[in-house]
Design the sequence.
């Protein structure tokens, strides 16, 4: 029994190394959901087989070999045929184009505004007004193309005047006013409606996104 366990662990380790080799040299952030499933299922096979005396080493080897072969065939198919690659691996989704939000794609990918804002902050972007184009990559990462004025200073060009910017807060999320955020910043709905009317916006339901900061004011994007 002990010898069986040792052999299974060794074979499982070799199989895991083989799968990683098949998937290629990727960072964890580059793994697609299917890549994660490959390793999870392999781990499940190993876990269930190690301490189950009814599972013989020959059965374990068959399961591991079959699974590794399937992964190899899938990886080859995704490289050779684009439709299969798109189906299994996915493709980048353009959520924002020239500053305009594609809400259908937001809904399709189940991406909430607060999730988006959190992901942007991790990349040093604290306002959606900075974003010209935004892509959701197959692995779940966000790729940002900023407007030129928000890009880092290059070639020794220094602004004649620069000031710190206050962080933004989300006031309207897909047509819904966030009353708790208004209270937090010491404002009310009447103030918000007044500010919106100054920008020619009268129907809150048509607003997909609205943020505000002390330094920059309101930033509004409609459906």
Sequence:
């Amino acid at each position: 029994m002990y010898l069986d366990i040792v052999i299974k662990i060794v074979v499982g380790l070799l199989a895991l190394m083989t799968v990683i080799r098949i998937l290629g040299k990727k960072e964890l952030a580059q793994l697609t959901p299917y890549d994660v499933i490959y390793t999870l299922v392999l781990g499940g096979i190993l876990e269930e087989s190690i301490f189950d005396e009814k599972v013989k080493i020959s059965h374990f080897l068959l399961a591991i070999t079959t699974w590794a072969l399937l992964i190899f065939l899938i990886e080859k198919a995704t490289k050779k045929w684009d439709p299969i690659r798109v189906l299994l691996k996915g493709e980048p989704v353009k959520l924002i184009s020239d500053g305009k939000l594609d809400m259908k794609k937001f809904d399709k990918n189940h991406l909430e505004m607060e999730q988006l804002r959190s992901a942007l902050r991790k990349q040093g972007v604290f306002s959606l007004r900075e974003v010209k184009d935004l892509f959701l990559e197959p692995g779940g990462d966000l790729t940002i193309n900023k407007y030129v004025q928000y890009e880092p200073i290059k070639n020794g060009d220094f602004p004649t005047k620069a000031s710190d910017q206050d962080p933004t807060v989300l006031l309207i999320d897909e047509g819904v006013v966030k009353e708790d955020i208004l209270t937090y910043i010491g404002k009310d709905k009447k103030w918000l409606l007044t500010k919106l009317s100054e920008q020619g916006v009268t129907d809150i339901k048509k607003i997909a996104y609205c943020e505000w900061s002390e330094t920059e004011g309101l930033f509004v994007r409609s459906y």
Observations:
- The helical segments are 2-23, 33-50, 57-80, 82-89, 103-108, 113-122, 179-184, 189-198.
- The longest strand covers residues 207-213.
- Residues 57-80 form the longest helix (24 residues).
- The chain has a mean pLDDT of 81.
